[in-house]
Amino acid sequence: MKDDNEHPFSDSELTTILVVADIEKSKKFYLEGLGAELNREYGGTSLVIKFLGSWLLLVTAGGPTEDKPETYFEPPVNKKMVSHSFTIRVMDCQKTYEILKERGISFITPPKNWGAETRCFFQDPDGHLFEISEYRETK
Questions:
Q1: Are β-strands 54-60 and 15-20 bridged in parallel, bridged antiparallel, or unpaired?
Q2: Which of 13, 26, 39, 58 is least crowded, fewest Cβ atoms below 10 Å from its Cβ?
């Protein structure tokens, strides 16, 4: 392996960009519903949050720029069609489900036990999909 000085991503972090329709509605969902921390906001069109050790940049829709010509940022148009999702590993899926439901998070279904895994799914206000998953060793 090469020296870290030659690694193009040394001392870097990954941020996921999620395009949202309503920045204030999404801000409330992530901060109050999921307990994320607000890092900073940009002019009412984007904000950076820290969630479970990861960075999320929530942005409103926008068109091409000089550094990304012919590229459009748009929120999901169909909540039933998923191009990516987030999985959150938890110690107790049922308990996490109950806490989030109390905070107003709407789930697609209650937790389902699949043997080694119990999981359930919810979406943010724009349809970005999240899974909470509890994994158990089976004998």
A1: parallel
A2: 13
